[in-house]
UniProtKB/TrEMBL annotation:
Residues 7-120 form the CENP-V/GFA domain. PANTHER family: CENP-V_GFA DOMAIN-CONTAINING PROTEIN (PTHR28620:SF1), CENTROMERE PROTEIN V (PTHR28620). GO terms for molecular function: carbon-sulfur lyase activity; metal ion binding. This is CENP-V/GFA domain-containing protein.
């Protein structure tokens, strides 16, 4: 059963704001790669067309590392990466939402799944 819902979210200072349709009944990903482990990001994935950037296109800074397939866009004012963009294994353009940056989501109620991003 899918529970695709529309959430709003954004960075800490409020310059970056977006709306995204995502299914949080699926486990959210806790990744152990060098970046995620420092950020403590909890990620939910959705096709990129389910993400609508409402504000902040002008303050987003793109950061890439390793194989440079993921665009880690963060707010240049407050430094928070509230989402990322990249191409999934099947060639589809995806976004990774940092569910900690969504409004009114009970993080403790979410199922989580560890992903060994360090070994990828
Ligand atoms: Zn910000």
């Amino acid at each position: 059963m899918t529970e695709l819902k529309t959430y709003t979210g954004g960075c800490h200072c409020g310059k970056v704001r977006y709306e995204v349709k995502v299914d949080l009944s699926n486990p959210v990903v806790m990744c152990n790669c060098s970046r995620c482990s420092k950020l403590g990001a909890m990620l939910a994935f959705a096709p990129v067309d389910q993400l609508t950037l409402k504000e902040g296109g002008d303050v987003l800074t793109d950061y890439q590392f390793n194989k440079k397939v993921i665009h880690h866009v963060f707010c240049s004012v407050c430094g928070i990466e509230s989402f990322a963009r990249g191409v999934g294994p099947n060639g589809q353009e995806m976004c990774a939402i940092n569910v900690r940056c969504l409004d009114d989501v009970d993080i403790d109620a979410l199922k989580t799944m560890k992903v060994d991003g360090k070994s990828l």
